[in-house]
Amino acid sequence: MAKETGKKLVAQNKKARHEYTILDTYECGMVLTGTEVKSLREGRANLVDGYAYIQGGEAWIDNVFIPEYAQGTWTNHSARRKRKLLLHKLEIRKIESKAKESGHTLVPLSLYFKDGRAKLELALAVGKKLYDKRQTLRERQDRRESDRAVAAARRRSGQG
Questions:
Q1: Which listed site, 47, 54, 134, 153, has its alpha carbon 20 to 30 Å from 64?
Q2: 0.85 exceeded by pTM
Q3: What is the spatial distance between Cα 47 and Cα 35, in angstroms, rounded to a whole number?
């Protein structure tokens, strides 16, 4: 069997980028069971309600939804169980010291396969206030309108 290469996105938490200001990101592995991996390979997962924390010198992720594998039997996994994250001890200490600061949290951003191994992109983030969210939306809308105006001007000059 040929070795799998490249990056295949399984799930993405778009809500996290809207709700939080991302300070730093980390790539980590996950301890998964066989049926979880098979379910992920089918492209089924949901990160929206997920969160990460550090407990006893180990990183954990909880409330990430990986549905049961359809062809699984009694060996199937629980869909929302807590899963251990694989990080170096120094990375865990660094993340823990930053996450203890007031208002900081660990949020999963994306779940993907990289060279055949399941990886999770974890972000150290700070929650946005309502006015920050409005400002972000306003900036995005302004950028979109300016791009449209430039494109329209190009079309007019090209036709004339």
A1: 134
A2: no
A3: 18
The amino acid at residue 105 is: T
C-alpha angle with apex 63: 108 to 45, nearest 5 degrees? 70
Rounded to whole angstroms, the Cα distance separating 132 from 145 reads: 20
Q: Which residues are 25's β-sheet partners? A: 123
Query: What does DSSP assign to residue 80?
Result: T
The span from the CA of 46 to the CA of 112, in Å, is: 12
Question: Mean pLDDT in each 10-residue stretch from start to end of the chain (160 residues)?
Answer: 73 86 90 83 84 90 82 69 90 88 87 89 86 84 92 81
Q: How many residues does the chain have?
A: 160
Q: How many CA atoms lie within 13 A of 67 on its CB side?
A: 11
Measured CA angle at 27 (ends 13, 136), to 5 deg: 40
Q: Within 13 A of 155's CA, how many CA atoms are on the CB side? A: 6
Q: What is the pLDDT of residue 143?
A: 92
CA distances to 27, 76, 87, 95, 132 from 91, in Å: 10, 32, 6, 6, 29
SS3 46: strand
Residue 125's CB is within 10 A of a number of other CB atoms, namely: 22
